[in-house]
Design a protein that fits this description.
Number of strands: 24
Distance between the termini: 108 Å
Low-confidence stretches: 1-22
Helix content: 25-40%
Shape: globular
Structural class: alpha+beta
Number of helices: 9
Number of domains: 2
Radius of gyration: 29 Å
Length: 458
């Protein structure tokens, strides 16, 4: 009997102590991250905590006291550098963070909500000078957490998921102008560190932005957007995106614009794990309609598949690194270093392959079908250690470094339309070759000589 009571006592003790130990473990994890944020410029201005036996909730108010250090942190994970002038606009801004977690270790994901509390003093003063009414509207939006990110993060597996709270805001500007923003169904999930995840997937049901006054309007609509990104490193990744609809509409301007793209898909990848660096990009869309005052154009089944191969890996990585650090184009030293890296990259040579550049039909004024076109091309830039010197003397010297092979098939009606707007020289007529209802051009550029359909161009 004593053994049974002893065993029960141990079990009860563990049951009592487990949430306390779990709470202590989570608190240590949070304290470590808060300390890290303070080293990056974000300091705790306020902290509140509420605990029960099973869960703990915490609220932090962070103030950005060192914008330069914080922007430097973000720049470590960005493809492009945030310009230095942003620092002054961010200094003093406040951000709220609400945490909730289970006291039993790893039984409940860490729940995080992040939202801006107030703008920086610099931005507040600027808004007040420009429009006190707009400043008050923004303050009201911030007070009700109009922009809020919710994240559920599992510390053990590093899996996370979350969403952006739906947004429906309208701001009245001066002179009867207003701006409205609506966002719905924005969610994400992934794996890894939040600032630099190994995998990330996003989706948005609808995004709408409208700027208008009594006489003019600009409207952007995006529907059913999805993206997926997988990273092995900053320069080795696979990304894809698709969007059901993108529409841009303007009215009341000198030239009204209506652009509608449907069923847009894009894929991009970069690979630096082999002997050479490789890049590839594929883009397609079902329809692209463009309506301007003098133009009524619809493109159907557009495709672009392009790749770059045999890039010198060290030169490519150096150029990519320097490009990501270019925060402003007037940074002479940075620009000179970047140009030097490009010269090194081009001097090693590479290949460009356009596997598919095509469209199935072009429709003018909703009635005139021009047919389609298809182009394939392979371009080789040969290695040349004197690339920089030749470029400085005369870029024409580099034409000997390039080999190009291109095949073009274009519909008869499209060819006539293009030729009518800008006629080919009379001496070029002998190189034209017809195949059924299409015109075909097999073009080569090699060692400075050009051939079209097996005929040397004189």
């Amino acid at each position: 009997m004593k053994k049974i009571f002893a065993l029960l006592a141990v079990v009860v003790s563990i049951f009592i102590l487990l949430p306390l130990l779990g709470n202590q473990f989570m608190q240590e994890q949070i304290d470590e991250r808060v300390k890290d944020l303070e080293s990056k410029g974000l300091y705790v201005a306020d902290e509140q905590s509420v605990s029960s036996y099973f869960t703990t909730s915490k609220h932090y108010s962070f103030v950005l006291k060192d914008a330069e250090a914080f922007v430097s942190l973000l720049n470590q994970y960005a493809d492009r550098q945030i310009p230095p002038y942003v620092n002054a606009a961010l200094e003093g801004a406040m951000m709220g963070v609400d945490l909730s977690y289970g006291n039993f270790p790893f039984t409940k994901a860490l729940s995080v909500e992040i939202y801006p509390i107030s703008l920086s003093q610099t931005m507040q003063e600027g808004l007040k000078r420009e429009s006190l009414s707009l400043y008050e509207q923004i303050e009201k939006a911030l007070a009700k957490k109009a922009l809020l990110y919710h994240i559920d993060y599992e510390l053990g597996s590093q899996n996370f998921s979350g969403y952006i709270r739906d947004i429906s805001e309208r701001f009245t500007l001066e002179a009867s102008s207003e701006v409205s923003l609506a966002l719905s169904g924005a969610s994400f999930e992934g794996h890894g560190r939040l600032l630099a995840p190994d995998a990330l997937r996003n989706s948005i049901d609808k995004l709408s932005f409208v700027m208008q006054n009594d006489a003019q309007q600009l409207k952007l609509d995006i529907e059913k957007f999805k993206s997926s990104n997988n990273y092995d490193s900053k320069n080795t990744y696979v990304s894809s995106a698709e969007c059901q609809k993108v529409a841009l509409i303007t009215s009341g301007l000198d030239k009204n614009i209506h652009i509608l793209a449907q069923s847009l898909q894009a894929n991009a990848s970069s690979n630096t794990q082999g002997e050479y660096a490789q890049l590839s990009s594929k883009t397609s869309l079902k329809t692209l309609a463009i309506n301007l005052q003098e133009t009524d154009l619809k493109i159907e089944e557009f495709n672009l598949d392009i790749g770059v191969d045999k890039l010198d890996k060290l030169s490519f990585l150096e150029a990519s690194k320097l490009l990501s650090k270019l925060s402003k184009m007037d940074d002479v030293v940075a620009m000179q270093a970047f140009e030097k890296s490009l010269h090194s990259l081009f001097s090693k040579g590479f290949e460009i392959n356009i596997a598919d550049f095509s469209l199935s039909d072009v429709l003018l004024r909703k009635s005139e079908h021009l047919g389609g076109m298809k182009l394939k091309s392979h371009i080789t830039l040969k290695e040349d250690p004197d690339f920089k010197q030749k470029l400085q003397i005369s870029p024409l010297l580099l034409t000997q470094n390039v080999d190009i092979h291109t095949k073009l098939r274009i519909s008869e009606l499209m060819f006539f339309k293009l030729n009518a707007s800008k006629p080919l020289p009379a001496q070029m007529q002998e190189y034209i070759k017809q195949d059924g209802s299409d015109y075909v051009f097999d073009m080569d550029y090699f060692a400075g000589a050009v051939t079209i359909n097996d005929k040397a161009v004189r």
